[in-house]
Fold:
Amino acid sequence: MRYLLLNAGGYRIVDTSNRVVDSGHYQIDAKRSPPTMDIVGDRGPHAGRTMLAIYELRGDELTVCYDLERAERPASLDPRRDQPKLRITYTRAPIASS
Structure:
C-alpha cells in the first residue's frame, strides 16, 4: 500500500518499503467550484511538472483528479471520453506514533 502524506503545502508519496517515491508541493483554492489544486513535482516521476487538478474532500476521503496528458484542469470529477483523467481517492488514516 502506498501512502500520501500532506503537510503544510508539501506532499510525499511513500511506497510499501517506506521509501519516498514522489514529492513536491501543492497549492489549493478552496473558494473555486470545484476547488482546485496545483501540484508541482520536485522529485520522482513528475519532477519539474505542474499538474492542474480539482479535488473533493468528504469527511476522511480526498479525491484528486487531473489530466496527465494535457496541461488542462478538469472541469469535473466525472469521466469524459475526450479528456482522459487520473482520479484517485485517498482515505485518511491515523498517524502511527513511534
The longest strand covers residues 20-29. Residues 3-91 form one domain. The mean pLDDT is 88.
